Amino acid sequence: MFAKTVAAKAVPYALGYWQKMTIGLWLLACGCFMLADTEVIALEPWSELGRMLLGVLQPDFFATEYLLEALWQTVSFALLGVCAGLLWGAPLALVYHKPWVAAFCAFIRAIHEIFWALLFLQLFGLSPVTGILAIALPFGATFARVFHDIISLAPADTGQNLPAGTDMLSRYVFGRIVHVSGQLQAYIRYRFECALRSSAVLGFVGMPTLGFYLESAFKQGQYHQGGALLILFVLLIGSISYWCRARLLPLYLLLALMFLPELPAIDGHLIWRFLSQDIWPPMLQRVSHLEQLDLQRLNELGRWLLTLLEKQALPGIFATLILALVALAMTHVLTLLWLPLVSRQLRGKWTVFGGKAMLLVLRSLPEYLLAFVLMLLLGPSMLPAMLALALHNAALLTFLTTRQSDKLVVSAQFSPKLDNYFYEILPRLYPGVMALLFYRFEVILRETAIFGMLGIATLGFYIDSQFAEIRFAGALVLMCFTAMMNIGVDALGRKILKGQKVPLLGC
Protein backbone atom coordinates (compact mmCIF):
# COMPACT_ATOMS: atom_id res chain seq x y z
CA MET A 1 0.00 0.00 0.00
CA PHE A 2 2.84 2.40 0.82
CA ALA A 3 4.53 1.72 -2.52
CA LYS A 4 1.31 2.38 -4.35
CA THR A 5 0.81 5.64 -2.48
CA VAL A 6 4.40 6.76 -3.23
CA ALA A 7 4.03 5.98 -6.92
CA ALA A 8 0.68 7.75 -7.13
CA LYS A 9 1.97 10.87 -5.39
CA ALA A 10 5.10 10.97 -7.55
CA VAL A 11 3.34 10.99 -10.91
CA PRO A 12 -0.34 11.97 -10.57
CA TYR A 13 -0.57 13.27 -14.15
CA ALA A 14 2.75 12.81 -15.91
CA LEU A 15 2.58 9.01 -16.04
CA GLY A 16 -0.71 9.05 -17.94
CA TYR A 17 0.67 11.66 -20.32
CA TRP A 18 3.86 9.69 -20.91
CA GLN A 19 1.90 6.48 -21.41
CA LYS A 20 0.14 8.12 -24.35
CA MET A 21 3.44 9.44 -25.68
CA THR A 22 4.99 5.97 -25.32
CA ILE A 23 2.23 4.25 -27.28
CA GLY A 24 2.39 6.95 -29.95
CA LEU A 25 6.18 6.62 -30.24
CA TRP A 26 6.06 2.83 -30.55
CA LEU A 27 3.31 2.92 -33.19
CA LEU A 28 5.15 5.59 -35.18
CA ALA A 29 8.44 3.70 -34.90
CA CYS A 30 6.84 0.44 -36.07
CA GLY A 31 5.53 2.21 -39.16
CA CYS A 32 8.92 3.78 -39.82
CA PHE A 33 10.68 0.44 -39.35
CA MET A 34 8.52 -1.11 -42.07
CA LEU A 35 9.62 1.67 -44.45
CA ALA A 36 13.30 1.45 -43.55
CA ASP A 37 15.97 -0.60 -45.27
CA THR A 38 17.02 -3.07 -42.57
CA GLU A 39 18.20 -6.01 -44.67
CA VAL A 40 21.24 -7.88 -43.39
CA ILE A 41 23.42 -8.51 -46.43
CA ALA A 42 26.76 -9.44 -44.85
CA LEU A 43 27.95 -12.88 -45.97
CA GLU A 44 29.35 -14.17 -42.66
CA PRO A 45 28.45 -11.71 -39.89
CA TRP A 46 29.04 -14.14 -37.01
CA SER A 47 32.45 -15.12 -38.30
CA GLU A 48 33.39 -11.44 -38.62
CA LEU A 49 32.03 -10.73 -35.15
CA GLY A 50 34.17 -13.54 -33.74
CA ARG A 51 37.27 -12.02 -35.31
CA MET A 52 36.40 -8.63 -33.82
CA LEU A 53 35.88 -10.08 -30.35
CA LEU A 54 39.16 -11.96 -30.64
CA GLY A 55 40.84 -8.70 -31.57
CA VAL A 56 39.44 -7.04 -28.43
CA LEU A 57 40.49 -9.97 -26.24
CA GLN A 58 43.98 -10.07 -27.79
CA PRO A 59 44.76 -6.40 -28.52
CA ASP A 60 48.01 -5.36 -30.14
CA PHE A 61 49.01 -2.06 -28.57
CA PHE A 62 52.23 -1.80 -30.58
CA ALA A 63 50.74 -2.16 -34.06
CA THR A 64 49.71 1.50 -34.46
CA GLU A 65 52.35 3.90 -35.60
CA TYR A 66 52.33 7.27 -33.83
CA LEU A 67 49.88 5.91 -31.22
CA LEU A 68 50.82 8.30 -28.44
CA GLU A 69 50.71 11.21 -30.86
CA ALA A 70 47.20 10.21 -31.99
CA LEU A 71 46.05 9.97 -28.38
CA TRP A 72 47.47 13.37 -27.57
CA GLN A 73 46.00 14.99 -30.68
CA THR A 74 42.59 13.58 -29.72
CA VAL A 75 42.89 15.20 -26.30
CA SER A 76 44.40 18.48 -27.52
CA PHE A 77 41.81 19.05 -30.27
CA ALA A 78 39.06 18.43 -27.71
CA LEU A 79 40.63 20.68 -25.09
CA LEU A 80 41.35 23.57 -27.45
CA GLY A 81 37.95 23.20 -29.11
CA VAL A 82 36.13 23.38 -25.76
CA CYS A 83 38.20 26.38 -24.65
CA ALA A 84 37.55 28.20 -27.92
CA GLY A 85 33.85 27.36 -27.61
CA LEU A 86 33.80 28.79 -24.10
CA LEU A 87 35.45 32.01 -25.24
CA TRP A 88 32.61 32.88 -27.60
CA GLY A 89 29.74 30.82 -26.17
CA ALA A 90 29.90 31.91 -22.51
CA PRO A 91 29.49 35.67 -23.23
CA LEU A 92 26.55 34.94 -25.53
CA ALA A 93 24.80 33.17 -22.64
CA LEU A 94 24.32 36.60 -21.06
CA VAL A 95 22.29 37.82 -24.05
CA TYR A 96 20.81 34.48 -25.11
CA HIS A 97 17.33 35.77 -24.22
CA LYS A 98 17.44 37.93 -27.36
CA PRO A 99 15.63 36.09 -30.19
CA TRP A 100 18.31 36.72 -32.83
CA VAL A 101 21.04 35.35 -30.52
CA ALA A 102 19.02 32.23 -29.75
CA ALA A 103 18.25 31.69 -33.46
CA PHE A 104 21.90 32.13 -34.44
CA CYS A 105 23.10 29.65 -31.81
CA ALA A 106 20.38 27.15 -32.72
CA PHE A 107 21.52 27.22 -36.34
CA ILE A 108 25.21 26.80 -35.47
CA ARG A 109 24.77 23.89 -33.06
CA ALA A 110 22.28 22.12 -35.35
CA ILE A 111 25.08 21.34 -37.83
CA HIS A 112 27.25 18.43 -36.75
CA GLU A 113 30.96 18.85 -36.09
CA ILE A 114 31.88 16.58 -38.97
CA PHE A 115 29.99 18.80 -41.43
CA TRP A 116 31.80 21.85 -40.10
CA ALA A 117 35.04 19.92 -40.55
CA LEU A 118 34.18 19.13 -44.18
CA LEU A 119 33.54 22.83 -44.75
CA PHE A 120 36.74 24.04 -43.07
CA LEU A 121 38.76 21.43 -44.94
CA GLN A 122 38.14 23.48 -48.07
CA LEU A 123 39.64 26.54 -46.37
CA PHE A 124 42.44 25.25 -44.17
CA GLY A 125 43.02 21.68 -45.35
CA LEU A 126 44.12 19.01 -42.83
CA SER A 127 45.15 21.68 -40.36
CA PRO A 128 44.61 21.81 -36.58
CA VAL A 129 42.55 24.91 -37.29
CA THR A 130 40.00 22.71 -39.06
CA GLY A 131 39.62 20.33 -36.12
CA ILE A 132 39.52 23.02 -33.45
CA LEU A 133 36.97 25.20 -35.27
CA ALA A 134 34.80 22.19 -36.10
CA ILE A 135 34.45 21.52 -32.37
CA ALA A 136 34.45 25.13 -31.15
CA LEU A 137 31.53 26.36 -33.27
CA PRO A 138 28.75 23.91 -32.29
CA PHE A 139 30.08 23.56 -28.75
CA GLY A 140 30.14 27.32 -28.25
CA ALA A 141 26.51 27.57 -29.37
CA THR A 142 25.60 24.79 -26.97
CA PHE A 143 27.44 26.49 -24.12
CA ALA A 144 25.47 29.67 -24.78
CA ARG A 145 22.16 27.85 -24.55
CA VAL A 146 22.90 25.64 -21.55
CA PHE A 147 24.73 28.31 -19.55
CA HIS A 148 21.76 30.60 -20.04
CA ASP A 149 19.41 27.87 -18.79
CA ILE A 150 21.61 27.17 -15.75
CA ILE A 151 22.07 30.84 -14.83
CA SER A 152 18.31 31.42 -15.11
CA LEU A 153 17.85 28.90 -12.27
CA ALA A 154 19.96 30.99 -9.90
CA PRO A 155 18.08 33.11 -7.33
CA ALA A 156 17.58 36.61 -8.65
CA ASP A 157 17.29 38.42 -5.31
CA THR A 158 20.60 37.51 -3.66
CA GLY A 159 22.25 40.58 -5.17
CA GLN A 160 20.30 42.67 -2.66
CA ASN A 161 22.48 41.31 0.13
CA LEU A 162 25.65 42.72 -1.43
CA PRO A 163 27.09 45.99 -0.07
CA ALA A 164 25.72 49.24 -1.41
CA GLY A 165 27.68 50.64 -4.33
CA THR A 166 28.70 47.23 -5.70
CA ASP A 167 29.15 47.50 -9.47
CA MET A 168 26.81 45.70 -11.86
CA LEU A 169 29.34 43.08 -12.97
CA SER A 170 30.17 42.08 -9.40
CA ARG A 171 26.48 41.88 -8.55
CA TYR A 172 25.90 39.55 -11.47
CA VAL A 173 28.92 37.34 -10.73
CA PHE A 174 28.53 37.08 -6.94
CA GLY A 175 24.75 37.39 -6.90
CA ARG A 176 23.92 34.78 -9.56
CA ILE A 177 26.82 32.94 -11.19
CA VAL A 178 28.45 31.91 -7.91
CA HIS A 179 25.26 30.08 -6.92
CA VAL A 180 25.40 27.83 -10.01
CA SER A 181 29.17 27.61 -10.47
CA GLY A 182 29.15 23.93 -9.52
CA GLN A 183 26.60 23.13 -12.25
CA LEU A 184 28.55 25.18 -14.79
CA GLN A 185 31.78 23.35 -14.00
CA ALA A 186 30.06 19.97 -14.12
CA TYR A 187 28.63 20.79 -17.53
CA ILE A 188 32.01 21.89 -18.85
CA ARG A 189 33.47 18.56 -17.76
CA TYR A 190 30.65 16.75 -19.51
CA ARG A 191 31.18 18.74 -22.70
CA PHE A 192 34.85 17.87 -22.62
CA GLU A 193 33.92 14.17 -22.60
CA CYS A 194 31.68 14.87 -25.61
CA ALA A 195 34.51 16.75 -27.28
CA LEU A 196 36.80 13.73 -26.94
CA ARG A 197 34.26 11.65 -28.86
CA SER A 198 33.89 14.37 -31.49
CA SER A 199 37.67 14.70 -31.78
CA ALA A 200 37.99 10.96 -32.42
CA VAL A 201 35.25 11.08 -35.07
CA LEU A 202 37.10 13.85 -36.92
CA GLY A 203 39.70 11.21 -37.73
CA PHE A 204 37.20 9.76 -40.20
CA VAL A 205 37.68 12.84 -42.40
CA GLY A 206 41.47 12.67 -42.18
CA MET A 207 42.36 14.52 -38.97
CA PRO A 208 45.28 12.86 -37.11
CA THR A 209 43.21 11.61 -34.14
CA LEU A 210 42.39 8.09 -32.96
CA GLY A 211 39.47 7.85 -35.38
CA PHE A 212 41.84 7.96 -38.35
CA TYR A 213 43.74 4.89 -37.16
CA LEU A 214 40.55 3.13 -36.04
CA GLU A 215 38.99 3.48 -39.47
CA SER A 216 42.15 2.22 -41.17
CA ALA A 217 42.48 -0.77 -38.81
CA PHE A 218 38.88 -1.95 -39.16
CA LYS A 219 38.73 -1.39 -42.92
CA GLN A 220 41.84 -3.51 -43.36
CA GLY A 221 40.57 -6.21 -40.99
CA GLN A 222 43.34 -5.52 -38.47
CA TYR A 223 41.07 -6.22 -35.49
CA HIS A 224 43.87 -6.77 -32.98
CA GLN A 225 45.07 -3.25 -33.71
CA GLY A 226 41.51 -1.87 -33.78
CA GLY A 227 40.68 -3.61 -30.50
CA ALA A 228 43.68 -2.00 -28.83
CA LEU A 229 42.61 1.43 -30.04
CA LEU A 230 39.04 0.89 -28.81
CA ILE A 231 40.29 -0.15 -25.38
CA LEU A 232 42.55 2.89 -25.16
CA PHE A 233 39.73 5.24 -26.14
CA VAL A 234 37.33 3.77 -23.56
CA LEU A 235 40.03 4.02 -20.89
CA LEU A 236 40.74 7.61 -21.93
CA ILE A 237 37.11 8.62 -21.36
CA GLY A 238 36.54 6.38 -18.35
CA SER A 239 39.50 7.89 -16.51
CA ILE A 240 38.68 11.56 -17.17
CA SER A 241 37.93 12.18 -13.50
CA TYR A 242 41.48 11.08 -12.61
CA TRP A 243 43.60 12.93 -15.16
CA CYS A 244 41.41 15.93 -16.00
CA ARG A 245 41.78 18.03 -12.86
CA ALA A 246 41.17 21.77 -12.75
CA ARG A 247 44.65 22.55 -11.45
CA LEU A 248 46.21 20.65 -14.38
CA LEU A 249 44.20 22.38 -17.12
CA PRO A 250 46.64 25.31 -17.59
CA LEU A 251 49.46 22.80 -18.08
CA TYR A 252 47.39 20.78 -20.56
CA LEU A 253 46.52 23.93 -22.51
CA LEU A 254 50.14 24.97 -22.67
CA LEU A 255 51.21 21.52 -23.87
CA ALA A 256 48.38 21.41 -26.40
CA LEU A 257 49.56 24.69 -27.92
CA MET A 258 53.23 23.73 -27.79
CA PHE A 259 52.77 20.33 -29.46
CA LEU A 260 50.12 21.39 -31.93
CA PRO A 261 50.95 20.15 -35.45
CA GLU A 262 52.58 22.74 -37.64
CA LEU A 263 50.09 25.13 -39.15
CA PRO A 264 50.31 25.24 -42.95
CA ALA A 265 50.44 28.56 -44.75
CA ILE A 266 46.97 29.98 -45.27
CA ASP A 267 46.36 31.32 -48.76
CA GLY A 268 44.10 34.36 -48.43
CA HIS A 269 43.42 34.34 -52.17
CA LEU A 270 42.02 30.82 -52.04
CA ILE A 271 39.83 31.69 -49.05
CA TRP A 272 38.48 34.76 -50.82
CA ARG A 273 37.80 32.74 -53.95
CA PHE A 274 35.95 30.11 -51.88
CA LEU A 275 33.80 32.73 -50.16
CA SER A 276 33.17 34.91 -53.20
CA GLN A 277 32.71 32.23 -55.90
CA ASP A 278 32.90 28.57 -54.94
CA ILE A 279 30.08 28.54 -52.38
CA TRP A 280 27.63 30.26 -54.75
CA PRO A 281 25.39 28.38 -57.20
CA PRO A 282 26.83 28.18 -60.75
CA MET A 283 24.40 30.71 -62.22
CA LEU A 284 25.43 33.30 -59.59
CA GLN A 285 29.19 32.84 -59.80
CA ARG A 286 29.33 34.99 -62.92
CA VAL A 287 27.32 37.82 -61.34
CA SER A 288 29.51 40.67 -60.13
CA HIS A 289 26.74 43.14 -59.27
CA LEU A 290 23.18 42.71 -58.08
CA GLU A 291 22.01 44.58 -61.17
CA GLN A 292 23.13 41.62 -63.31
CA LEU A 293 20.60 39.33 -61.61
CA ASP A 294 18.26 39.20 -64.60
CA LEU A 295 15.12 37.10 -64.88
CA GLN A 296 16.88 34.28 -66.71
CA ARG A 297 19.42 33.76 -63.92
CA LEU A 298 16.69 33.90 -61.30
CA ASN A 299 14.77 31.21 -63.20
CA GLU A 300 17.91 29.08 -63.38
CA LEU A 301 18.43 29.55 -59.65
CA GLY A 302 14.84 28.52 -58.95
CA ARG A 303 15.15 25.38 -61.08
CA TRP A 304 18.45 24.51 -59.41
CA LEU A 305 16.96 24.86 -55.93
CA LEU A 306 13.85 22.89 -56.91
CA THR A 307 15.94 20.05 -58.34
CA LEU A 308 18.10 19.97 -55.23
CA LEU A 309 15.00 19.90 -53.06
CA GLU A 310 13.25 17.12 -54.99
CA LYS A 311 16.22 14.88 -55.73
CA GLN A 312 18.25 15.19 -52.53
CA ALA A 313 16.81 17.32 -49.71
CA LEU A 314 13.37 15.70 -49.40
CA PRO A 315 14.57 12.07 -49.78
CA GLY A 316 17.40 12.81 -47.34
CA ILE A 317 15.06 14.40 -44.77
CA PHE A 318 12.64 11.47 -45.09
CA ALA A 319 15.39 8.88 -44.56
CA THR A 320 16.88 10.88 -41.69
CA LEU A 321 13.56 11.11 -39.85
CA ILE A 322 12.79 7.42 -40.44
CA LEU A 323 16.14 6.41 -39.01
CA ALA A 324 15.95 8.82 -36.06
CA LEU A 325 12.44 7.79 -34.99
CA VAL A 326 13.23 4.07 -35.04
CA ALA A 327 16.48 4.71 -33.14
CA LEU A 328 14.54 6.79 -30.60
CA ALA A 329 12.10 3.93 -29.93
CA MET A 330 14.96 1.40 -29.72
CA THR A 331 16.71 3.67 -27.23
CA HIS A 332 13.57 3.73 -25.11
CA VAL A 333 13.20 -0.06 -25.09
CA LEU A 334 16.87 -0.70 -24.29
CA THR A 335 16.82 1.85 -21.47
CA LEU A 336 13.86 0.12 -19.82
CA LEU A 337 15.56 -3.27 -20.19
CA TRP A 338 18.90 -2.10 -18.80
CA LEU A 339 17.63 -0.10 -15.83
CA PRO A 340 16.84 -3.18 -13.67
CA LEU A 341 20.25 -4.66 -14.51
CA VAL A 342 22.16 -1.78 -12.89
CA SER A 343 19.75 -0.97 -10.08
CA ARG A 344 21.25 -1.29 -6.61
CA GLN A 345 17.81 -2.13 -5.25
CA LEU A 346 17.76 -5.35 -7.32
CA ARG A 347 21.32 -6.46 -7.97
CA GLY A 348 24.42 -7.21 -5.99
CA LYS A 349 27.52 -5.06 -5.93
CA TRP A 350 29.46 -6.96 -8.58
CA THR A 351 26.49 -7.31 -10.95
CA VAL A 352 25.90 -3.55 -10.80
CA PHE A 353 29.62 -2.95 -11.36
CA GLY A 354 29.59 -5.14 -14.48
CA GLY A 355 26.48 -3.40 -15.80
CA LYS A 356 27.99 0.04 -15.27
CA ALA A 357 31.19 -1.07 -16.99
CA MET A 358 29.08 -2.06 -20.00
CA LEU A 359 27.37 1.33 -19.95
CA LEU A 360 30.76 3.07 -19.79
CA VAL A 361 31.95 1.28 -22.91
CA LEU A 362 28.78 1.95 -24.90
CA ARG A 363 28.45 5.61 -23.94
CA SER A 364 32.15 6.25 -24.52
CA LEU A 365 32.19 5.05 -28.12
CA PRO A 366 30.77 7.58 -30.61
CA GLU A 367 27.66 6.50 -32.52
CA TYR A 368 29.48 6.99 -35.80
CA LEU A 369 32.21 4.57 -34.74
CA LEU A 370 29.69 1.99 -33.48
CA ALA A 371 27.78 2.22 -36.77
CA PHE A 372 31.01 1.79 -38.72
CA VAL A 373 31.83 -1.43 -36.83
CA LEU A 374 28.26 -2.76 -37.06
CA MET A 375 28.18 -2.04 -40.78
CA LEU A 376 31.18 -4.30 -41.25
CA LEU A 377 29.09 -7.02 -39.59
CA LEU A 378 25.61 -6.43 -41.00
CA GLY A 379 26.22 -4.67 -44.28
CA PRO A 380 25.30 -1.17 -45.55
CA SER A 381 21.70 -0.73 -44.43
CA MET A 382 19.91 1.41 -41.85
CA LEU A 383 20.03 -1.36 -39.25
CA PRO A 384 23.65 -0.76 -38.10
CA ALA A 385 22.94 2.95 -37.69
CA MET A 386 19.75 2.26 -35.71
CA LEU A 387 21.55 -0.14 -33.39
CA ALA A 388 24.51 2.21 -32.94
CA LEU A 389 22.29 5.14 -31.97
CA ALA A 390 20.17 3.00 -29.67
CA LEU A 391 23.12 1.37 -27.89
CA HIS A 392 24.97 4.63 -27.27
CA ASN A 393 21.99 6.73 -26.21
CA ALA A 394 20.38 3.98 -24.12
CA ALA A 395 23.66 3.57 -22.24
CA LEU A 396 23.75 7.32 -21.55
CA LEU A 397 20.09 7.49 -20.48
CA THR A 398 20.49 4.42 -18.26
CA PHE A 399 23.59 5.93 -16.65
CA LEU A 400 21.83 9.23 -15.90
CA THR A 401 18.64 7.58 -14.65
CA THR A 402 20.55 5.14 -12.45
CA ARG A 403 22.19 8.04 -10.64
CA GLN A 404 18.67 9.20 -9.71
CA SER A 405 17.31 5.75 -8.85
CA ASP A 406 20.21 5.05 -6.49
CA LYS A 407 19.08 8.03 -4.39
CA LEU A 408 15.46 6.88 -4.07
CA VAL A 409 14.21 5.79 -0.67
CA VAL A 410 12.10 2.63 -0.95
CA SER A 411 9.41 1.45 1.42
CA ALA A 412 9.95 -1.09 4.15
CA GLN A 413 7.85 -3.58 2.18
CA PHE A 414 10.13 -3.41 -0.87
CA SER A 415 11.90 -6.63 -1.86
CA PRO A 416 14.54 -7.01 -4.61
CA LYS A 417 12.25 -8.47 -7.24
CA LEU A 418 11.23 -7.22 -10.66
CA ASP A 419 7.55 -6.83 -9.80
CA ASN A 420 8.42 -4.60 -6.84
CA TYR A 421 10.83 -2.61 -9.03
CA PHE A 422 8.19 -2.02 -11.73
CA TYR A 423 5.57 -1.24 -9.12
CA GLU A 424 7.44 1.16 -6.85
CA ILE A 425 10.63 2.46 -8.50
CA LEU A 426 9.99 2.68 -12.23
CA PRO A 427 6.82 4.83 -11.95
CA ARG A 428 8.88 7.42 -10.09
CA LEU A 429 11.65 7.34 -12.70
CA TYR A 430 9.59 7.04 -15.87
CA PRO A 431 8.68 10.71 -16.44
CA GLY A 432 12.37 11.60 -16.19
CA VAL A 433 13.30 8.78 -18.58
CA MET A 434 10.80 9.98 -21.16
CA ALA A 435 11.83 13.61 -20.71
CA LEU A 436 15.48 12.68 -21.24
CA LEU A 437 14.53 10.58 -24.26
CA PHE A 438 12.82 13.45 -26.04
CA TYR A 439 15.57 15.81 -24.95
CA ARG A 440 18.02 13.52 -26.74
CA PHE A 441 15.90 13.45 -29.91
CA GLU A 442 17.71 16.46 -31.34
CA VAL A 443 21.06 14.80 -30.64
CA ILE A 444 19.94 11.55 -32.27
CA LEU A 445 18.82 13.48 -35.34
CA ARG A 446 22.18 15.25 -35.60
CA GLU A 447 24.05 11.95 -35.43
CA THR A 448 21.65 10.33 -37.90
CA ALA A 449 22.54 12.86 -40.57
CA ILE A 450 26.27 12.07 -40.52
CA PHE A 451 25.68 8.36 -41.10
CA GLY A 452 25.36 9.34 -44.73
CA MET A 453 29.14 9.34 -44.83
CA LEU A 454 28.90 5.57 -44.34
CA GLY A 455 26.66 5.21 -47.37
CA ILE A 456 23.22 5.46 -45.73
CA ALA A 457 21.01 7.77 -47.79
CA THR A 458 20.34 10.37 -45.10
CA LEU A 459 20.96 14.07 -45.62
CA GLY A 460 24.58 13.50 -44.70
CA PHE A 461 25.00 11.19 -47.70
CA TYR A 462 23.98 13.94 -50.10
CA ILE A 463 26.06 16.55 -48.27
CA ASP A 464 29.14 14.33 -48.44
CA SER A 465 28.47 13.68 -52.13
CA GLN A 466 28.25 17.40 -52.82
CA PHE A 467 31.60 17.99 -51.12
CA ALA A 468 33.15 15.06 -52.99
CA GLU A 469 31.93 16.50 -56.31
CA ILE A 470 33.20 19.98 -55.36
CA ARG A 471 29.65 21.35 -55.39
CA PHE A 472 29.98 23.54 -52.33
CA ALA A 473 26.82 25.57 -52.99
CA GLY A 474 24.66 22.45 -52.92
CA ALA A 475 26.42 21.22 -49.77
CA LEU A 476 25.73 24.52 -47.98
CA VAL A 477 22.06 24.48 -48.97
CA LEU A 478 21.68 20.91 -47.69
CA MET A 479 23.48 21.87 -44.47
CA CYS A 480 20.90 24.63 -44.04
CA PHE A 481 18.13 22.05 -44.48
CA THR A 482 19.84 19.91 -41.83
CA ALA A 483 19.97 22.87 -39.44
CA MET A 484 16.32 23.79 -40.00
CA MET A 485 15.23 20.18 -39.46
CA ASN A 486 17.16 20.00 -36.19
CA ILE A 487 15.76 23.34 -35.02
CA GLY A 488 12.23 22.10 -35.74
CA VAL A 489 12.80 18.85 -33.85
CA ASP A 490 14.32 20.75 -30.93
CA ALA A 491 11.23 22.98 -30.76
CA LEU A 492 8.98 19.91 -30.90
CA GLY A 493 10.96 18.24 -28.14
CA ARG A 494 10.65 21.30 -25.91
CA LYS A 495 6.90 21.34 -26.52
CA ILE A 496 6.61 17.65 -25.64
CA LEU A 497 8.58 18.13 -22.43
CA LYS A 498 6.04 20.70 -21.22
CA GLY A 499 8.30 22.07 -18.54
CA GLN A 500 9.69 18.74 -17.37
CA LYS A 501 13.00 19.29 -15.56
CA VAL A 502 15.76 17.10 -16.99
CA PRO A 503 19.56 17.10 -16.70
CA LEU A 504 21.07 19.68 -19.03
CA LEU A 505 22.75 17.50 -21.65
CA GLY A 506 23.29 18.72 -25.17
CA CYS A 507 25.83 16.33 -26.70
Properties at a glance:
23 helices, 507 residues, globular, disordered C terminus, mainly alpha, disordered N terminus
What does this structure look like?
- The chain is mainly alpha-helical and 507 residues long.
- The chain contains 23 helices and no strands.
- Helix 17 crosses helix 19.
- The chain is globular and about 80 Å long.
Please give the structural blueprint:
Elements: H1 2-10, H2 14-35, H3 45-57, H4 67-93, H5 99-110, H6 113-124, H7 128-152, H8 168-175, H9 181-201, H10 210-219, H11 223-238, H12 240-243, H13 249-258, H14 268-278, H15 282-285, H16 295-338, H17 349-364, H18 367-378, H19 382-405, H20 418-439, H21 441-450, H22 459-468, H23 472-497
Short account of what is shown:
By secondary structure, this protein is mainly α.
Estimated helix fraction:
over 70%
User: How do the helices and strands follow one another from N- to C-terminus?
Assistant: HHHHHHHHHHHHHHHHHHHHHHH
Which value, in Å, is the CA radius of gyration? 24 Å
SS strand fraction: under 5%
Structural class: mainly alpha
What is the 3D shape? globular
Compute the number of strand runs.
0
